[in-house]
Design goal:
- The protein is α+β, with helices and mostly antiparallel strands and 555 residues long.
- The chain has a five-stranded antiparallel beta sheet with strand order 13-12-11-10-14, with helices on both faces.
- A hairpin with an 8-residue loop joins strand 10 (489-497) and strand 11 (506-513).
- The longest helix is centred in the middle third of the chain and has 16 residues, at 235-250.
- The N and C termini lie far apart (64 Å).
Length: 555
Amino acid sequence: MNVQDFVEKHQIDTYNLKNTISSMIDEEKEELLMDIDLIKNNLHLEEFEIVELIKEISNGKSKINILLKNSELDKYYKMEILKSLETKILGEFLVEHKEFCSENDIQPYEIIRKLEPEEQKSFAENLEHINLTLNEKKEILATLEANVKQNINTTNLPKEYKSALSIQTTEYFGSVILDLERELEDYRGLDNLISIDPEQFTEEQRNKFIKICDICPNLQVINRINDILECTSTASEYKEGEKWINSIIDNLNPEYSKAQKMAVIDNAIGKKISYAPDFGTEVFNHLNSRSLWKIISSGYGVCNGIAKLEQCILNRVGIESEIISSGSHAFLKINDIELPLANGEKVQGNTILDPTWNLARHRFGGMPDNFCISYEQARKNDIDIEGRDHKCHKNDEKLQDVTLNLDEQSLRQLFKSVELTDREGQFPIKSLIEKSKQVDEFYANQPEQNINKQFLLLKQSCPEFATCQNSSMSILSLLLSNENLKFNKCVVDRVYKRKDKEKRPVMFVYIDTDELGKKFYVASKDEGNFVEVEQKEFTEKFECYEKDLENYKRY
């Protein structure tokens, strides 16, 4: 039968076409549905229509043959076809086609838990005779419907099966409902089912959860930025992040005030985190830069992720805060905090802390100019030197009661009290700037040496400068703006190596002077310094991000 000719001859519309195919015998359906090009490109059947037709076939082997042929079907539709198989044939498929399931990210439990209760029970009772891994069997048992679990005779079941049956899971997603009071070993092998947000855990619960991370190293740790955005970290990232958070909190002087604790915490975040250097590029991962514990592990984040991290730590030391968004930027509103003034008085109220805008300052020992400021001051900071208002902190509704603004003298006094300045209240960056100016004066007539010495100062101040690109770029731009460094052009920016498939950012400096001509320097993470490269080599080895090329026509 030439179905295509039949359709064209009788001008059958799509609806009647499906009904016509549905009326065929199984052998004809199988022959037709195996011809992918025909059913998709000539008959123009939708995926859901194809799946419905496949499910109608009574022969399970035929369904499997068609499924394997239709490799481009969506995962959901593939699972729908598998669910329509008899449980015995389904069990055989899961064993014989493990590679297919792996390639399509289909876990056996995802299919079994969607079967009808009687089918679930039948599959579970025959589970011991199906050659699946122990972990796969435990996942299946754990995610069965509650009423199915109750009807399974557990008398002769292995201990691991019984413990899996006793695990509670959510009805819709099949995720484990974690019970930290039960034997934690019961969760071994259920990594795929564990997706937990531990942000509100007590210290005791966190300690137990860390043990679960050792038992289930492939579980997912989640944190929510808002009602829509959910980010994930790995178990190892969670453990690393918690170790770092605890190191900060454990080293806080118990006699410190909330303001002092906040100063230490904000500084520690700036020392650890840099703004995501690939932000705004074609390879930027917006979830990774907002995943609370991943940020700590990688050292990179963006504003709402960094604000979330600081809020998490502040909350653990009893400081109440709220994440505020202007639509383009996120920061913290600190509620009802007492701040000390240099004259010995204290003021209390609401203030703004912007950890993201403080990152580079803290990394290089500078005075954070977005620490405990009023809404009025924050809005002033939104205006650049050309008078443009970027409205980064604009939120009149939520910030109209933010009036506390710590003056410079009081800020220096506060950071001095936690030993983040010298005895005179001077921040460490002052020494860096003074040395930079001395170098500029000493090498006033030797521009190449001047540049290389400025690079050396950057390295001495921050040995990891090549891996905290955004913070380094802001400070380096300052060091290269000295009076005697007379550039026709100076660019401090990012590129990536052409051979790097991940397109990881590399910081570079491009200068153009009358005396030296055009020079390129690349920050080497391996060597920990700037390496000069010829222009030809630079253009051959490195590439600009597409977004940067769109925004800047530099070369």
